[in-house]
Design goal:
Length: 177
């Protein structure tokens, strides 16, 4: 039960804000004159995207996609499907995928391949967090915020079984009670 779950803060809201500012500066430098399409994978990335784009003061578009990767709980179901695809044509466009976490890498690998088939001019990946201890597929993260330890994390959009997305910071589940 969520009321019994023990959480410890890994990254405060202030620490996350500094990281988002850095990533925004890097993205601005590279995409200023490219009118990129930022594609966010729902749901976990919605908070990160909202903070990120408000620091980008140049033309860009935003698209959403929804994939299924995890079932209920903490382990990947291993099978990935496109639940809702992007709505715009990205052929010839500069595309930046915005993710909240790269865990096994299976989701990102699947989604980048899916987007590559749509023939964008360029395709890069930005992820707020990476958990290298869990890597199954090595993914090149072009813009990486934070490396996280081998713990299940929640908050700042990231859930555990749909709980804790609302937390302003990133916390680790230490004990499930
Ligand atoms: C999370 C996260 C990534 C994926 C990473 O999404 O947003 O898309 O898992 O895991 P992987 O590297 O092991 O594939 P999740 O399926 O939990 O959905 P959500 O964003 O709706 O919470």
């Amino acid at each position: 039960m969520s009321s019994e779950v023990k959480l410890s803060v890994l990254f405060t809201a202030e620490e996350i804000a500094v990281v988002v500012e850095r990533l925004a500066a890097e993205i601005r430098r590279d995409y200023l004159d490219k009118n990129p399409v930022l594609i966010t994978v729902l749901k976990g990335s919605f908070v990160f995207l909202a903070d990120l784009v408000r620091q980008l003061d140049f033309p860009l578009e935003i698209e959403f996609a929804q994939l299924s990767s995890y079932g209920h709980g903490k382990e990947s179901a291993g099978k990935i499907k496109v639940v809702q695809d992007i709505q715009c044509d990205i052929k010839g466009r500069h595309v930046l995928v915005v993710e909240d976490i790269i865990d096994t890498g299976l989701t990102a690998a699947f989604f980048l391949k899916h987007l590559k088939e749509k023939q964008p001019a360029s395709l890069k990946l930005c992820s707020l967090t990476d958990k290298p201890s869990r890597t199954q597929v090595k993914i090149n993260i072009d813009y990486l915020g934070l490396t996280v330890p081998d713990k299940f994390i929640v908050g700042y959009g990231i859930d555990w079984d749909e709980k804790f997305r609302y937390l302003p910071d990133i916390r680790a589940i230490e004990d499930e009670g």
